[in-house]
Amino acid sequence: MPSGSAPSFRTKRAIIGIAVWVLFTPLLLVAQGEQAFEGEITDSMCTGPSGQAAMLKQGETVARCTIACVKMGAKYVLSNAENKTVYKLDDQMKPEALAGHNVVAVGTLDKATGTIHVADMIGALPPKVMKAVLVYVDCVDCPRGMAAAKKAAVREVGNWKRFYLVPDWHKADLIFLFSARPYLGDYITRDGEHRGPISVETTYMNIIDPRTGESLWGDSRKWGSWFVGSATKDLIDGFRVQVDAEEGRVAGLLAFDKDQHLKAAPNQGK
Q1: Candidate CATH numbers 1.10.12, 2.40.128, 1.20.1300, 2.40.50; the one for domain 7-124
Q2: Tens-place pLDDT, residues 85-113
Q3: Which helix (H) or strand (E) holds 105?
Q4: 52, 136, 174, 206: which has the highest count of C-beta atoms within 10 A?
């Protein structure tokens, strides 16, 4: 069985991440003895007072810049511009699919080194994702076993029944993109720097904005070429848990707000 495939564990992590992200602050997760930290995945080379976005060349994305810096020897870090904190990450695999994303990292902090020992990492969902209806499924750099990703994704999205599949990405609200390589933000321009043979070790999933090419959410599974279909299903399951948790949170907030107004009503006009 591929590692990380236990759905109950991932479900609990995703729900914890959604709740913590909403509060915008690290909370002590007493049951697990862990903390949750919100921030952006950048790299140790480009992270600074001005932020990585200020250092980008025209047409370049934070994701592409971050991945390029890591290839040159930098490390993925969790940066929070609001409280001016930068944490090192002991797990350098999980951040790869989330480069340039706002995330919630769950783990324990080594205060002496400023390093988070990562137990899980969840990408935050922007409003564009929650409002989307039409979806296009695509698979790039998908040779051999990787080709199973698109077939599995179409089946899982169809079973979900939350989105409608469309045959043209220009008409979609979101693109569900699968690949054997990290996404560089180049779906629209198609000017990525990937060259050479592809080794199918990791299945990457990114939720792409078809208007801008921006990755709105991403994750990956390093399960090898024999488990691409299973990895794709698990990635969509993980994304589905987040969407469902976010929708439930919004409904809960609306119910809470309505309840507060009803409680306040008897006191009005006195």
Answers
A1: 2.40.50
A2: 999 999 998 888 888 888 888 889 999 99
A3: strand 102-110
A4: 206
